[in-house]
Amino acid sequence: METTNNNNQEMEQMRSQLNLLKQKLDSQQIVNDRLMRQSMKSKMSWIDKYRWICLLFIPFVALCFLPSVYEMGLSWWLYGATVLLVTVSSIADWWINRMPKSEFMKGNLLETAQRLTHMKKIRSRQTIIGLIAVTIWIAWLVYEYHMAGVRAGEGSDQMALSWAYICGVGVGGFIGLIIGLSIYFKMQRTNDEIIEQIYDLKDIQ
């Protein structure tokens, strides 16, 4: 009888220890989950800042392009197309890359991973369309600068200025392409890293 009681006590102690261990593991898992979610949110924060910076390009381009219109006699059609292109591109960047912070801290992470994957696909399409649109815009801009020089006549200051602008467009376009693609690939890598973190966390759980 005494042996049975001892066995029962040992079993109760083991159950108690197992319950304590389970509580500690659950608590540790919750802490790890929160830390991982915070890490994901931090990785995405620079993209969120980029979204708002993009919107500042609209008034910046609208004001900075005006001197060229008056100085070189560029068409208002080109000016309107330039402002429209920047506006559409900036709003598209703002919309495509939106991701509320609550998605990481409270949302279903598997759904967040699917959303990030979709974001990557849409961003790729936007980049291809954007490159085509910018190529057409640059060709139009170079043509108008060239015609401005032609109207001024060979050897004129206006002709020299038009060639300077054309060279500037070429250099600026090349630098802009490198910067734009660098940002694009960095965004895609950020999405990949967060998606990988989500699936790693789900495997652990």
Q: If you compute it from the alpha carbons, what radius of gyration comes out, rounded to the nearest whole angstrom?
A: 29 Å
Unreliable parts: none
Strand percentage lies at: under 5%
Distance between the termini: 43 Å
Class per helix and strand makeup: mainly alpha
Shape annotation: rod-shaped
Number of strands: 0
The helix-strand sequence is HHHHHH
The residue fraction in helices comes out at over 70%
Count of DSSP H/I helices: 6
Q: Kindly state the mean pLDDT as a whole number?
A: 81
| Largest sheet descriptor | none
Can you offer a commentary on this structure?
By secondary structure, the protein is mainly α. The protein is built from six helices and no strands. Helix 5 (109-152) packs antiparallel against helix 6 (157-204). The longest helix has 63 residues, at 2-64.
Keyword list:
single chain; 205 residues; mainly alpha
Topology overview:
Blueprint: H1 2-64, H2 66-72, H3 76-96, H4 102-105, H5 109-152, H6 157-204
Helix pairs in contact: 1-3, 1-6, 3-5, 5-6
Summary of the model, kept short:
The protein has 205 residues and is mainly α.
